[in-house]
Design brief:
The chain is an alpha+beta fold.
Length: 169
Amino acid sequence: MSSSQTQSYSSDGFLNQKYAAPPSWKIKLLYDGQCPLCLREVNFLKNRDAGRGLVAFVDIAADDYNPQAHGDVDYETAMGRIHAVLPDGTLVKNVEVFRRTYEALGMGWVYAATKLPVIDAIADFLYGIWADWRLFLTGRPDLATIVQERSSRLACKTQSRCRLTHGDD
């Protein structure tokens, strides 16, 4: 069942399906909110969106990031390569994300050349190099360390043994 569809059961046990309106956004962009260069791009895109809601921006670095609500893209996968979700649930990644996002904002000409097969392959190759090096280039730990630190931090939030307690509480 798609995320825009909900299930409920009537008192006689029959399934009632209610269909919500399709989302207003044209693309849901998953981005790393702790990456300074990513934030610059996202801020630029938010300004271009100008509150129209054409792009839904989802910070994967937020502690409440829920993969199931965003195409089942887990944190580690999303950190490795940029991903986006289309309203029908289709996942896109790499340069296709930028192409679709810019198209949604009326700036498709910026990435239009990447629709050509040879240029698309080159663009994805170059993006892959960037994605592999972006953590290092922005002065951050490697992906394995970031994933481990996040996992530990989130585990502490759910386990009382990790919380600081005051003797007078």
